[in-house]
Amino acid sequence: xxxxxxxxxxxxxxxxxxxxxxxxxxxxxxxxxxxxxxxxxxxxxxxxxxxxxxxxxxxxxxxxxxxxxxxxxxxxxxxxxxxxxxxxxxxxxxxxxxxxxxxxxxxxxxxxxxxxxxxxxxxxxxxxxxxxxxxxxxxxxxxxxxxxxxxxxxxxxxxxxxxxxxxxxxxxxxxxxxxxxxxxxxxxxxxxxxxxxxxxxxxxxxxxxxxxxxxxxxxxxxxxxxxxxxxxxxxxxxxxxxxxxxxxxxxxxxxxxxxxxxxxxxxxxxxxxxxxxxxxxxxxxxxxxxxxxxxxxxxxxxxxxxxxxxxxxxxxxxxxxxxxxxxxxxxxxxxxxxxxxxxxxxxxxxxxxxxxxxxxxxxxxxxxxxxxxxxxxxxxxxxxxxxxxxxxxxxxxxxxxxxxxxxxxxxxxxxxxxxxxxxxxxxxxxxxxxxxxxxxxxxxxxxxxxxxxx
Length: 454
Known about the structure:
Elements: H1 14-25, E1 37-44, E2 48-49, H2 58-74, E3 78-85, E4 90-96, E5 102-103, E6 113-115, H3 143-153, H4 162-172, H5 178-186, H6 200-208, E7 211-212, E8 219-221, H7 230-233, E9 252-260, E10 265-269, E11 280-284, E12 293-296, H8 299-304, E13 322-325, E14 343-346, E15 367-370, E16 389-393, H9 394-402, E17 412-416, H10 425-435, E18 443-449
Parallel strand pairs: 13-14, 14-15, 15-16, 16-17
Antiparallel strand pairs: 1-2, 1-3, 3-4, 4-18, 5-6, 6-17, 7-9, 8-9, 9-10, 10-11, 11-12
Helix pairs in contact: 1-2, 3-5, 9-10
């Protein structure tokens, strides 16, 4: 039993959790069939993730609110829990406290992702743009027409000097497109002088067609900022098709954000895809973590309202980079094997467990996720020499740990939890973390009695 815990005595009292556990176990059939029942969830300062049927009673709601208030007083964002209840009511409750080395998982009862290297990102968020020799402006790019249009719309605007534009280029480390330079020669939008017109940003935004940033606020779209975490990010791949106008990256030094629609960011693209144009306008969706949408072939088109109506397919989960095997997907590992394979996800499967032999030694395979019981021999994982993310069931991890065969190339890992793994999974995760000398996850184990099922 682990005694280390944050100073939250009320949360670490089994009685506090009884109403929550009773709610989640109310519709459980396992205990009525003389089997143990298992539940898991999370309570944060501002919300809950609890699986239950029916409505929450006032007693349970009060218990949840008490836990939330205690978390707030202790400065703890959330606590995850997992419990096992025997048919006679004897219950073991594990409280899993937040850890700097664990990224919470999207689903339960999974513990989360173990981050084995500080600041590490999945490979797509480290990808730099591919060079596209010969990429030039679109035929519609017309700096002179753009300047005339903007001066007609903004006759009294104050533009940036050549020195200010050069300073922005030096700060960003890129050469801006001729059209973007024209835009800021007409209006710098923001300035440092005392006589600056506070209404100019509104007029400039109306003239251009978006909420316009000032020259000093231009920025390159940062891939790391868009990283969704390992739980989601490790299973995606960058897809730059030969007919793509926009490279399917998370970010690029050449994606120069210049405005927004109130939520998403417009950028001038200086690193276009094979079928794109230098200086095209793209939309970086805040709900997406990879890729961007082409909205205009040029800034001239954008300002004149000549938007692209056709959208390129931005899917990033197609073969050969990403393959899914299992019921409803590919039925053999051999069908997924390909030199360009980066992500292999093995889902639910009722047939014979799979051998990893067909993908052994593939040069780009960096992610393997496998549902518990789907691998014929977990030790075949050792043949995947480029792995940076691995998600396996508790049994499979046990085999690797006992054999000293956990790949040391990993940057992150996860334990895929089944019912019987609820409580032991933290100890298993700590064994994995220990291989990288990472801090342990703290778990508080509590004992109580909920009595027999009603």
